[in-house]
Amino acid sequence: MMETRLCGTVKRTSPASFALALLGTTVLAGIPVAAAAQDSGTAQAEAQVQPVAQNDTIRTIQVVGSQRLEPQTILSYVKLRAGQTYTQAAGDQALKDLYDTELFSSASVRNDNGNVIIEVVENPVINRIILEGNKRIKNDKILPEIKLAARQIFTRSKVRADVARIIELYKRQGRFAATVEPKMVELAQNRVDIVFEITEGPKSKVRQINIIGNDAFSDGELRSEMVTKQARLTSFLSSNTSYDPDRLAFDQQKLRQFYLTEGYADFRVVSAVAELTPDKRDFIITYVVEEGERYKFGDVGVDSQIRDFDSERLERTLPMKEGQWYDAKLVEDTVEQLSELAGTFGYAFADVSPQFKPNRENLTMDVDFTIREAPRVYVERVDVNGNTLTQDKVIRREMRIAEGDAFNSLQVKRSTARINSLGYFQENFEIEQKEGSAPDRIILEANVEEKPTGELQLSAGFSSIESFILAASIRQRNFRGRGQTVGASVNWSRYSRSAQLSFTEPYVFDRNISLGADVYRRDFDNGFGSRRRTTYEQSTTGFSVRAGVPLTEYMSLVGSYTFNYDDVTLDETQFFADLDGDGVRTCEPLLAGRYLCEAVGKRTNSILGATLAFDTLDSRYRPTRGRSLSLTGEFAGLGGSVRYLRIRGKAAQYFPLGKGFIFSLTGEGGAIRGLRDSDGDGYNEVRLTDRFFLGEPQMRGFDIRGVGPRVLRQPIISDGEGGSILVTDQNRVQDDAIGGTAYYLGRAEVEIPLGSGAREMGLRPSVFLDVGSVFNVQNPRVQSSPFPDGISIPIRDASGNALYTQIDAAALNDAGNCVASSTSTVTNPVNPSPPACLANANNVALANNIPPFQEVFLGDSWKPRVSIGIGVNWNSPFGPFRIDFAHVLRKQEGDDTKRFTFNVGTQF
Fold first, then answer.
1. Per-residue pLDDT reduced to its tens digit, 656-667
2. Whether 264 contacts 327, CB under 8 Å
3. Checking phi first, is residue 398 left (phi over 0); if not, alpha (psi -120 to 50) or beta?
4. Hey, which residues does 118 pair with through a beta bridge?
5. Are residues 334 and 352 in contact, defined by beta-carbon separation less than 8 angstroms?
6. Residue 884: is its pLDDT beyond 70?
7. CA–CA gap between residue 800 and residue 612 (Å, rounded)
8. Mean per-residue pLDDT of the chain
9. What count of other Cβ atoms lies within 10 Å of the Cβ of residue 428?
10. What is the pTM of this model?
11. Please, how many CA atoms are within 13 Å of residue 241, restricted to the half-sphere of its CB?
């Protein structure tokens, strides 16, 4: 039973009564009474209009039963007026007019001796719409699609239409078993609540795709060409397993295209039937095809009616040759190439049409490409539409064709690529071509759709070395709509911090000259997590300015100047000692290592650089084709305290593989050579802070600075039985990357297209292969000794052996430091208790205080490190997200690996 409120009282009626009410039966006081539907007004009129005399004159008209509507308003809906003659037809028409308003659930017209009485029952007002049972499609998706809404007049026809509309929404999602039951809850004051009880049902999948009539190709080969896929356990991530009538029609086209590319010119799909199983859970699709015979190319020619084109010369450049299997896709591509060729000569509207002549006796297909005569076309005007923030000049200065120029399709395509590369507008932007005011005039329209160019980037990551990493940056790539770029960034982790401000003006004073500047501060220390102790800290404060000019359409030259102030420090209490006894403490290699001692100090870097760049990419932000090359040279020594020459190169090539696959190859490398005089002191000519480092994020699969030369300082402890133990536990070993003077890095990556559902979510997975190495640094040996002259103590060994040797006491005696038996030996500094003969040595304190250790130099190899993996870019609701899983195939001893990284951000 359901509660129905009528006139302030509560009456209970069965749910069946309400269903009947919605289907055409009115329940009044619990008694069903036949009521007319809107499409049966004539029958209603015949049942309720009283027979009258033909010449009965209407004296009065009275309205009975109105609540919200004024009687005069109701009278305005009918054509009956006092003084007219009342007829049966006039009464029928009045009843139809009342029902046409959809304001009344029932109505009657009767004549009582010239007094016409119109009795109505008004349709209730909808109080609210309630959706129940909908989980897959939320309220905000359904309510805008239906006609009924709160404060509207209820009608049964609208309810039926809304039920059909809701079911259609579920069918679009592939839920053909969905049902909707409408119910009405009556309230006081002639108001009702409308409840749609929705049973969504399962998603209807394509259980089976049957193909009848195929002999040349198997069912599996043909199914692979279709967008629709059969529901299998392995296809749970695909959205193409659901039934879609539009997709069914598209698959027929895909089948035809496939057969036409294989030479079957007579192929046709006889029928395509989709049958819904009785339980409405699955579809079975059956295609009946007729393959026909397979054709080869016969005579292929070009008939050019444009005088600039030589038909015979064009024929020699055609990709298809007589005797090859017929390929409709090749013909289509040839038409496009010939159209583009005509466009480069100014014939924008050249009509290139292939004429086919099948020879069914010898199964050949003659093709004649006809290029019809067309006038040369000139650009009448260039229109820019849709830009609300971006200034017109920002778009127009990227155009490579201007008003009054002869039309050139290559220049139009280049203009499209340059506007796409701005990154300000929708993806796949195209310049539209329209006919001008005359046959030889064309209008170019740049209909842009602006997208957010501000970026608020929030990154978080976990590193096995640096633990938790945070980064934040804000950047506006189209500042004030002028195409300027301004940005600020802050990065923080347990062992590195940086801040930077930047500004770039791509067109200085509206000239094709770019100008940019950066100001930054970077702090870094070499201690990472529990695995490493902090050994040195580096602070860099500086600025750089750059200016660029184009040399050609695709090549540019950028000059730059950078000034850095570097301060490298060590903990003096841990790594400094007073060797000369003069009270001046200096960095001690036995404590810190030679590679760190030579890096300590304050220096200024004055760097002059130049970059030569070549770029034909179709987009700088998401390229799909083209290449980019750059070569950068830097000279440090124009003032400052550091002198070196550094050169770096980068290259990238993108290939569209078809069907949405994009393959890219990228590579880079560099070398640096120090120009300072080492004077044979064994110091590296290139300081630690100027060398190359490699790892995350450049090379996935390895941690930050995880690739290349490094020094491990391993403690030596007593075993408690008079012996010693070499500690190799990573948490107790000091591990320092020392970089290299040369590096290379290469990457191969394939972007994998997903189904339409995944594309709508913004998912773009890829698989990658990274190869690289950093190498070529001098073995960081200590060439001098803290002990007296003539005594050599090599403390490092490139082969990885222990870094201590025994010292002959006779040598110490000869050096005049002490008197001891020539047969005695001491081990220093492994032996924590050196003999008394060292009591007069200048380094007694140092020798006693150095804990035993072994240092090993690893990783200085040009041999490639190799990693493979899979990554996913996701344009999530909260911003761009990137996640990578990598597995290292090849590495060198000492390299630090890392399997998982992610990055997340947002846009505004």
1. 987 789 999 999
2. no
3. alpha
4. 63, 109
5. no
6. yes
7. 43
8. 79
9. 9
10. 0.59
11. 17
